[in-house]
Amino acid sequence: MTATRSHVTQPEAWADATNPVLPGFHPDPSVCRVGDGEDAWFYLVTSTFEYLPGIPVHRSRDLVSWELVGHVITDQLDYARIADSDGLYAPTIRHDGERFLVACKFVGDPEGASGNFVVTAVDPAGPWSAPVWWHDSTGGDTSLFLEDGRIWAHGARQALEPRWHAQGEIWVREVDPVTLRLTGPETVVFESAVIGAIWTEGPHLYRNGSSMHLVAAEGGTGRDHAVVAGRSAGPTEVFEVTARNPVLTHRHLGPDACVVNVGHADLVEASDGSWWALVLASRLVDGVDLLGRETFLTPVVWVDDSPVLAPGEGTLVPEPGGPARPDGHGTQGPPTRGADEPWIAVRRLPAEIAEPAVDSAGTTAALRLTAGRPLDDPLPAFVGRRLLAPSSTVTLDVPVAPADGVEEVGLALRQSGRQWLTAGLASRSTGPEGGHDLVVTRCVHGRREEAARCPVAGPGQVRVRVHGRTAEVSWSARDETTPVVTVDVAHLSTTHADGFVGVVAGPYAVGTGAIDVGPFMQQR
User: Fold this and answer.
1) Which residues belong to the active site?
2) pTM for the predicted model, two decimal places
3) What's the CATH number of domain 344-523, 3.10.20.580, 1.10.10.10, 2.60.120.200, 3.30.420.140?
4) pLDDT, mean over the chain
5) In the structure, what pLDDT confidence band is assigned to residue 10 with cuts at 50, 70 and 90?
6) Which long-range contacts link 5-12 to residues 24+ away (Cβ below 8 Å)?
7) At 224, phi and psi to the nearest 5?
8) C-alpha–C-alpha distance, residues 472 and 400, integer Å
9) What CA–CA distances, in Å, run from 299 to 67, 181, 216?
């Protein structure tokens, strides 16, 4: 493997890189391998928080190119009362030889079912079972270790008897393989890798040789995020930490490095005997991380019975390589970049407010969108797709006039209900001739502000070109493009807005009735 260290000072080194292998808002990756040799597949899940469908399942032959095969959560949970960046946290996927198991935590429904749970499926595309709740567990970031027909659950929480602020600990407890309920005593096996470390999270257990290994994260999910490791004789033994901790972090590169927030790793062994880690990290451009936390790949080697992540580099690199493919060759071709990216919606399934619209040619590139509430409502009339690159252009074709009852229709970039940008077509209610305006609105920390208003004719296309902290909004019609406004979109980044999600872009419609929009396009 060869790589340069230019990513420390040159963000363009990451522009067309293999890493991240799953770009856009795909945090908290968990991976498992099913099968050997030519039959081997890797399966990956990530967090989705308040968006549905929840927990996408991707598969890959080489850990680099991924395809979406389904979602774990569709209608099993009630999202009505969850807040922004609540919902589904840090899933883990494993396979017991016959079925897939996903453990996860559902956060934020005080009046209904919430907490840690496990679901199963024979086919990763679904259907997935109803949750088996672990109401007698605490904390979150639950994981599973499977060995010799036994299942061990483990999770992270704030220490019950902390010696410093925000000290964490990791518990382990056996799971009945038939009922999938927790059984037997709980054992605390880990209490931070470094004295003073905070927010222990993301634990995973592995067997390598005769030793049991623990990989977890500490430091919070921001700039001080880090991967730590420990070793023991068995899953319920106290883990001895390695002197190399943390085993991976970018905190030493400073808060403005091109790739930050590195942590939350899950390790997997490939059929060729090589080991790899999928980790979360964020890319910065102009000091903002609009995409949130993405999934990156790095190699792992074992030295003195401890894992070394990113050997020879110490940091993530743009081109991490990959395991040998089943045909004996290395990774071939560029990774998949969101070609199969699905529509997602806020606190409900996209099908509740959008369906394919068939045009005169019989194609279904357009959507019939049911108008409803605005972006700052808990249930906005909005469907979207993850923004996939720090420099992206998103476009949406819209009709010249909103349909009856539709007050505004256009393109939205959403980070939360308090942080968003819309560029929408609205009927002009004043003036002797009426007409339509393209209205650009920013919502910053819950306060709306009109950034621009421009009279337009159409039908036409709304275009938003994003690069770093700026977005250029324009309107195209009759082969002419009219610049409308350039706005600051730093408020959409996790660095400024907090929360755990990245920007999701797509069509919205305010009012009543329905309207055909699209196609929606995203280009780098």
Assistant:
1) 28, 201
2) 0.93
3) 2.60.120.200
4) 90
5) low
6) 5/313, 5/315, 7/258, 7/259, 7/315, 7/316, 7/317, 7/318, 8/253, 8/257, 8/258, 8/315, 9/258, 10/258, 11/258, 11/283, 11/284, 11/285, 11/390
7) -95, 10
8) 21
9) 21, 35, 17
